[in-house]
Amino acid sequence: MIECSIDGAVALVTLNNPSANTFTAAGLQQLHALIGELNGNLQIRAAVITGHGEKFFSAGADLKEFADGDKEHARLMAKAFGAAFEALQEARPVFIAAMNGYAMGGGLECALACDMRICEEHAQMALPEASVGLLPCGCGTQTLPWLVGEGWAKRMILTNERVNAETALRIGLVEQVVARGQARQSSLELAKRVATLSPAAVTYSKSLIHQGRQGTPRAAALAMERERFVDLFDGENQREGVSAFLEKRKPNWRDT
Question: Where do the domains of the chain lie, and which CATH numbers do they carry?
Fold first, then answer.
């Protein structure tokens, strides 16, 4: 279900479970394990997640998973969604969602867990769980308000409002809208830009940005920001970056 290819410092992860790239417990566990592998491979600086085909990024969980009302199975699925998408949010590489079509329910939550989102002009996004007696359990109730504000999060979750690409861009749900069929390539180009930067600087910066999401008091976060700046001087990349700039050449970063 989860395919992965690596080209230099960039990984391409493809959700492939026809016809709607839905998530199963096994698929979520596979995604969780893959994120752990990419975390451990210091050569990987960025990763793109996309869906197989032209219509769906991912439609989320297959509702047949919940048809029998089995509470223990529901607990297993909720745990699998949470573990995979929390790992995705906190992963060391920068993750970019290339949204090639519909992103519904857990599919949208997967994209929300990424650092950035690029969607194609025909994409549609929604968290429709309440319409079938469920709720978003893959970090959606927490991540969506952080990105778009409480009002739009409530519109999407509490009224089942579906958002198109234009609206998604306007409210900050995605960072870029591209033509049909262009999300993967545009996302890979963005990922390659990440790979031109200092690995340690990117890792520290991503963690610091997330402090606001985690409710860290501003004074503590600012103190940590200054400490991480000084910590960069422990490695060779800080000297390499400054030297490359002064010498008008591209830096030769070391994996850290």
Answer: 2-194 (3.90.226.10), 199-246 (1.10.12)
Q: Which of 3, 37, 72, 109 is catalytic?
A: 109
Please confirm, yes or no, whether 109 is among the known catalytic residues: yes
- For β-strands 2-7 and 10-15, DSSP reports them as antiparallel
The CA-based dihedral angle spanning residues 97, 103, 109, 113, taken in that order and rounded to the nearest 10 degrees: 10
Catalytic annotation, pick one of 37, 54, 121, 129 = 129
Q: Taking the model in full, what pTM does it have?
A: 0.95
User: Where does 40-101 show beta strands of DSSP type E?
Assistant: 46-51, 56-58, 94-99
User: What token pair was written down for 248?
Assistant: 């008008």
Helix, strand, coil % over all residues of the chain, rounded to 5: 50, 20, 30
pLDDT tens readout for residues 198-209: 999 999 999 999
Q: Is 129 one of the annotated active-site residues of the chain?
A: yes
Query: Is pLDDT of 256 > 80?
Result: no
**What was the pLDDT predicted at 171?**
98
56, 20 contact by CB (below 8 A): yes
